[in-house]
Amino acid sequence: MRILEESVALRAADIELVKIHGFGFPRWHGGLMHYARARSLAEVQLC
Q: Fewest CB atoms less than 10 Å from the CB: which of 1, 2, 8, 37?
């Protein structure tokens, strides 16, 4: 969330690419931003 707020990334899709290809987040989960949108902000911040 802060990455977008601070304009480090322009779009959520930019974060998805880094997480999937750079850090190996499982793309079959839909990417990190999809995962975060599917849950509440409070739940994601606890992880």
A: 2
